Amino acid sequence: MVHAERTAAQPGQLELGTTAQLHDVTSDVSSVAVAGVELPLAEEMKVLGVVLDRRLTFEKHLTMVARSCHYHAQAIRHIRHLLSPELASTMAHSLILMRLDYCNSLIHGSHVSSIQTLQGVQNNAARIVLQAQRQCHANPLLPKLHWLPVRHRINYKLAVITHKITRIPKSSHQHPRISTNAAFI
Question: Domain-by-domain residue ranges, the chain?
């Protein structure tokens, strides 16, 4: 039951709920003591280039990735007339698509708008590489470049990781709880 007034969370209490429910809960916890040192809580943090927020929405991360990719896409657009199709594709792969693919499995199952943000970046890159008009629909362009749409790139990446985990013999560093189920192989 959600009340109109904001309620305070108890220290050490885990807060679960929808975004609207969590918005109605305030937390007086502003820091955490670790080994006798008070560490302030942050709204977001960057780990291995991925921006994590308190709600794990990845909105800021996706915004930063899209901004970086658009910057590089514009740089390629300015010199595209000087590049061969192969070189333009290689530059798009190295400057744009690799940013789209980095840690993209974290957003698997997220809201469609999150994926569409990255899809727009990929569509823009395809238009630049193939020198298509900005208003041109990008769906026919992706197969010409042999590019999977972003959602399929994420699914493919997860499938490859899963395949490697289940098919490669266990090594000493693999967690003992990872096991294969014959029914799924």
Answer: 46-166
